[in-house]
């Protein structure tokens, strides 16, 4: 019998994906559920909904609430939380391409968590090669090789395909979790998604 | 010392307010927290965000997800859930005005729960006088008196004020819960709001 599994759909600019990324591995392991990390881009998803940027920017009341809500969530998980100093949303394109390289090489989870910490706890610019190089070094990955692999056409295409698949499967925000056709949206649905995988 | 309290902001057309309305009284009672039921209208709130109707209508992917999500939630609470046969969103104006009468008279919670059941479990038209009359009778309230009170200018004004206060306090969706300045959005934040009230 196959081990039950969930797919974790995330974008590096997504605030709620940060606490989700920090707890999914432990929660899934305790439950005996495998996690497939599936980075994608929210930009095209938002565009498909008629938005030119994050809904938290378009709707200020929602943006203010989101900040306080994530602050409370991070407090409960003992995570630092500080919005990056740059205009939101952050550009997670390079990081997402690198993550796909890490998926094949086995370091995607560790890399992704560190990108989130850099973005939302350390206020670093995750679109910067310097920052990404530092993160790769810290997890023992040779940066030049990883960057080269991330810029191969088939790797870029892989990220586009993830994003297209996300839209095709009804995903409209991050983080999302899928178990077959069953979709769960939001950090607060993680436990439910894991439980569903075990059904 | 005052009993800890939360304010429950809801709109009768809001799907997620349905499961919240069905569980808030019991949860709060067990926790020793008082609940102030605060009906308001989402129409003006959405208008302030540039929407002409419910975001679940504007964004189909979100609407489809919402239906399945609420279906799962209702299943877990042993609640029936069927979208009303009418074009969404339903018109909860009359019901909200009646609810305010019930706030003064002490039957707002019972009335509100029954309006939600009529709307989301029994597929009844909650903008219909016949349906609302039936609900009032079932909770032992004289319909003619309640309708007359609901149509008084000061009662209509009361609902407008609730809605204005909701917007002023940063509310952008329903259900929402407030404990002083602390805002919690969504049925899934109810437990957190109650815990906050006891801090």
Secondary-structure map with pairings?
The structure is a homodimer of 199-residue chains.
Chain A: E1 5-10, H1 17-31, E2 34-39, H2 42-48, H3 55-58, H4 60-76, H5 93-105, H6 108-120, H7 129-138, H8 143-150, H9 153-168, E3 176-179, E4 182-185, H10 190-197
Parallel strand pairs in A: 1-2
Antiparallel strand pairs in A: 1-3, 3-4
Can you describe this structure?
Chain A is of the alpha+beta class. Chain A has a single domain (5-197), classed as 3-Layer(aba) Sandwich (Glutaredoxin), CATH 3.40.30. The first copy, chain A, has helices at residues 17-31, 42-48, 55-58, 60-76, 93-105, 108-120, 129-138, 143-150, 153-168, 190-197; strands at residues 5-10, 34-39, 176-179, 182-185. In chain A, helix 5 crosses helix 8 (143-150). The radius of gyration of chain A is 16 Å and the shape is globular. Chain A starts with a strand and ends with a helix. The A-B interface holds A 48-49, 59, 61-62, 64-65, 68-69, 72, 167, 170-173, 182-186, 188-189, 192 and B 48-49, 59, 61-62, 64-65, 68-69, 72, 167, 170-173, 182-185, 188-189, 192.
């Amino acid at each position: 019998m196959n081990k039950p599994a969930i797919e974790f759909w995330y974008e590096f600019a997504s605030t709620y994906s940060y606490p989700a990324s920090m707890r999914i591995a432990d929660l899934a392991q305790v439950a005996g559920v495998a996690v497939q990390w599936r980075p994608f881009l929210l930009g095209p998803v938002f565009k498909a909904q008629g938005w030119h940027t994050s809904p938290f920017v378009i709707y200020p009341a929602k943006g203010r609430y989101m900040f306080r809500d994530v602050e409370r969530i991070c407090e409960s998980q003992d995570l630092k939380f500080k919005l990056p100093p740059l205009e939101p949303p952050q550009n997670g394109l390079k990081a997402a391409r690198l993550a796909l390289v890490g998926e094949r090489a086995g370091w995607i989870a560790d890399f992704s968590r560190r990108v989130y910490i850099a973005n939302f706890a350390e206020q670093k610019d995750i679109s910067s090669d310097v920052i990404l190089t530092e993160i790769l070094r810290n997890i023992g990955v040779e940066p030049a090789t990883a960057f080269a692999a991330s810029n191969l056409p088939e790797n870029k295409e892989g990220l586009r395909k993830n994003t297209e698949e996300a839209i095709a499967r009804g995903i409209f925000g991050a983080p999302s979790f899928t178990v077959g056709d069953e979709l769960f949206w939001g950090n607060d649905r993680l436990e439910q998604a894991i439980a569903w995988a075990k059904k």
